[in-house]
């Protein structure tokens, strides 16, 4: 059975904060951060936005492109590291809001930044097995970095949604591969507000080892080489890592740029490589080959090979395109407003 | 508003389900028991289009207790493209977008939470497009 993507959608907050605005508060050197991280600004969720609201809007865009009834969705999986509730699923609210209840399987996924691609991986498998007709997989986050920490420059918000199925596909998922080990590069303990990370250790033994591991294994499995692809997208915790890992594998800048949203968006964690893929599908042509590889701390990567089908042309304009969400209606925040939005200001009880 | 009452309103708050009078076709949002145009009592359910335009607007500077942290905030009467007029908050408006005639789309947003350990209530807000 051929399985793949029937509909896809994205959603981003409209608020932004520039790297300079954060750097000035902490006495940091903005030009070196911008150059070092290849980051100019990041999205900031409004106080009335969270993983659930972003996921619902992305799912509605995916439904508009899929042109299916929500009642046909047999599974709703939301991957995130910032689910609004510690106990109470994100997915039930999302399923209720889009009208997919009650005959539906639902679970929230967590795996740092790769929870979204995990949901895609599992939905693809369930469709292929025949258990469900369609599965909705969402990667969404509204992540936080501790004030003054390097993560504060990048931790942002956004959501990408995919409806997986076996007919009327906009892209087939030809192969997928997972690669993971126990690697303590980034974590957050229960009741802690901000995550901890192992500094430079998050690079070579963590991001690069797993992204390269999953990507090389999948390329080998497929018998394809980087030059066979029109586009490639990797997890993007900053601007530098995905470009570097892509080039290490043999991809060229032109293949990587379409899905490289991070310089203007920041790191959307579980939404990162899935959002990059939405930007690629927005402009892809039938027959295009796409390579995608996520990364989640802890650590692991999910890699996918996709082929765009003829139906992409009619689906692309049925919902808002990701670059439009990135470029239009932006509202810039000062650090004080940002601190208030992100509840970094403690008020008297 | 308590969580059970909010829960009963999910079809409207989450999915914009309106009642269409089978006799005269008037679209009611929220649904009502008797049509105010023809006194009809039979309705079908229809998901409203999420777009409309601002008819009038105001800024609430002293909000009710659940909304104190959000004040000041914008509220508008929005005429939906399907006909009904609704009152809701306006979110994410830029300078010049809180005006009569501004096109808006309903977006899924947090309306308020019942304290830091309570339920989060979701619903719609109008966002300029
Ligand atoms: Zn009537």
Give the arrangement of secondary structure elements:
The complex is a heterodimer of chains A (349) and B (129).
Chain A: E1 4-11, E2 15-18, H1 19-26, H2 30-37, E3 41-44, H3 51-66, E4 73-79, H4 90-98, E5 105-109, H5 115-129, E6 134-142, E7 157-165, E8 171-180, E9 186-187, E10 196-197, H6 203-222, E11 231-234, H7 240-249, H8 253-256, H9 262-265, H10 272-283, E12 289-293, E13 300-308, H11 312-316, H12 322-327, E14 331-332, H13 335-341
Chain B: H1 3-8, H2 10-13, E1 17-21, E2 27-28, E3 43-47, E4 51-60, E5 73-80, E6 85-90, E7 103-113, E8 120-128
Antiparallel strand pairs in B: 1-2, 1-3, 4-5, 4-7, 5-6, 7-8
The complex binds zinc ion.
User: Structural class of the helix and strand makeup of chain A?
Assistant: alpha/beta
Strand content of chain A: 15-25%
Net shape of chain B: globular
The count of domains of chain A is 2
Can you count the beta strands of chain B? 8
CATH superfamily of the largest domain in chain A: Thiolase/Chalcone synthase
Rounded average pLDDT of chain B: 94
Give the SSE order of chain B as H and E letters.
Answer: HHEEEEEEEE
* Biggest beta sheet summary of chain A: 9 strands, mixed
Query: Which CATH class of the largest domain in chain B is shown?
Result: Mainly Beta
- What is the number of helices of chain A? 13
The main pleated sheet of chain B reads as:
5 strands, antiparallel
Distance between the termini of chain A: 58 Å
Q: Overall pLDDT of chain A, averaged? A: 96
Using only CA atoms, what is the Rg of chain B?
16 Å
In what range is the share of β-strand residues of chain B?
Answer: 35-45%
**CATH architectural name of the largest domain in chain B:** Beta Barrel
CATH topology of the largest domain in chain A: Peroxisomal Thiolase, Chain A, domain 1
The first-to-last residue Cα distance of chain B is 30 Å
